[in-house]
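It is worth pausing here to work through a concrete case rather than discussing structure prediction in the abstract. The textbook approach is simple: state the sequence, then state the predicted structure, then interpret. We follow exactly that order.
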Amino acid sequence: MMKFILDIGSITRIRSSLFCGLAVWLLSDMAMHAFSVVCFLAFSFAFNDLVDRGMDKDGHPERPLAAGRLQFVHVIILCVSLAVLGLFVAYIYSNSIVWILFCYIGSIIYSWFLKRHVPIVSNLLWVTVVTVAVFYPISLDLIYYVFFWCVLYSHELVLDYRDRHSDSKHCTTPTIPVIFGDLTILLIIGIAIALIVFSFVVSQPAIASLLLVGLLGLLIVCLLFGIEGAFYIFGKFRLFPCYYWVFLIWFFQ
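Step two, the predicted structure:
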């Protein structure tokens, strides 16, 4: 039973989902919105693993579905339950049912079709729906939406670099790291520089300073460990996950 619970936690990325929910709660003081975000993220991760179970046998054989520790029907029931619960809470408490429903539909399209067939577009959609799900009911300056979107997109590039060998076999069109390889790091650096400039333009020097420190850290890691080593470190130690950055946005607020 304990193994089953741990496997459920694994496919829902429960630690990431809960931490992001906690960060949203601190930022918005809207507990039910935070709960609906947790349900949405947990659903998205579980549904993605469900769709990718064949691909994961090659790229992530340790995952519960790919390893055969969870059955297809268990994950279907879990996904339906999370979606119903998340949408119900959004409808009753946070008045954001339309936007949350848009996010669920976007997440399904991402996992079911775009991720495998048009992965470059799929990342743009996924990052957008997560940003909307997290921040739509919260009144924030534009810089925070842009900041979160760009950092989360950089995280997706790191994950795509990690999975580039598997993706080259299973995706019908290539991902950015499959096309550009180690040069993908230049895109992440470009995003960081653009964010720094944008932060100064909108008079947010604190965020610009934070990003500058992060950029310098990225360059130092690349110099010390090489580009492939840097991608490994960022992926292994989860330096880009969204809940860290929601906490930072809460701090700067």
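Step three, interpretation. The radius of gyration is 18 Å. The chain has two domains: 1-138, 140-253.
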